[in-house]
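Input record, target 12 of the design panel.
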């Protein structure tokens, strides 16, 4: 089933996979009932159980999700989903934020504009692959720093000399332009940026690993996985979106 997008229900598809065969999941499920996606429904509890079953020890799930606002209240579905993954035995390794740039006014006129979504990073035990991206430019690059890190009791942990590097590791709020930054998504109604998927694939997996997206949509996760030398498996119930996926992943070859 490697390096293909399968037109079928994601729970049915994942039941065809053996236990603990997936290194990384990067996905963005439908948010509450904000969009119909061709009238197809999905089973969160079935998806969560299957993901926990197929994920390897040390594997990671990146669950990109947000909440609808109904009757003046946010649903809280996102956090409920994260807590359910914990009940299945996964760790909530990091609660990251995808800050969406360029959306314009979005949300209720009675609140501040909505400009971010959760990226829940869940893991089965300690993540086996952690490749943190260090691309934050340091204004004091090359300077000598002698102050040590501070322990929980307020005391310095150490006092060794450090040279400020050219770049530092990112924080856990990542900002991207809305959509796919000019990438052809075939008209899918809810794409996330290619670079968001690529950065998560790079962060939580290594070349040759298997990346799963059970809501593959227009194929952004598959395209990122292929470009970075990972194998991919996708499930998508809408045949129109499967055709988009196949077109977007057809160019180029898997680079291991």
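The sequence produced for target 12 reads:
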């Amino acid at each position: 089933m490697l390096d293909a997008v399968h037109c079928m229900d994601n729970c049915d598809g994942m039941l065809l996979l053996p236990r603990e065969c997936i290194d990384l999941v990067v996905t963005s499920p439908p948010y509450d009932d904000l969009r119909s996606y061709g009238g197809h429904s999905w089973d969160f509890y079935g998806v969560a159980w299957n993901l926990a079953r197929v994920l390897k020890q040390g594997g990671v799930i990146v669950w990109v999700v947000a909440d609808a606002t109904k009757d003046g209240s946010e649903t809280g579905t996102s956090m409920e989903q994260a807590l359910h993954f914990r009940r299945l035995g996964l760790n909530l390794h990091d609660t990251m934020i995808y800050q969406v740039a360029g959306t314009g006014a979005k949300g209720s006129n009675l609140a501040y504009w909505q400009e971010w979504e959760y990226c829940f990073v869940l893991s089965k035990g300690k993540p086996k692959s952690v490749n943190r991206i260090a691309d934050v430019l340091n204004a004091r690059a090359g300077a000598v720093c002698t102050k040590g890190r501070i322990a929980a009791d307020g005391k310095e942990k150490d006092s060794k000399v450090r040279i400020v590097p050219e770049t530092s590791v990112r924080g856990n709020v990542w900002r991207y332009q809305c959509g796919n930054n000019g990438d052809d998504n075939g008209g899918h109604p809810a794409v996330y940026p290619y670079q968001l998927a690529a950065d998560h694939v790079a962060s939580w997996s290594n070349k040759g690993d298997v990346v799963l997206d059970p809501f593959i949509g227009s194929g952004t996760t598959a395209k990122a996985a292929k470009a970075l030398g990972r194998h991919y498996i996708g499930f998508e119930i809408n045949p129109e979106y499967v055709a988009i996926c196949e077109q977007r992943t057809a160019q180029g070859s898997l680079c291991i």
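The two ends are 18 Å apart (CA to CA).
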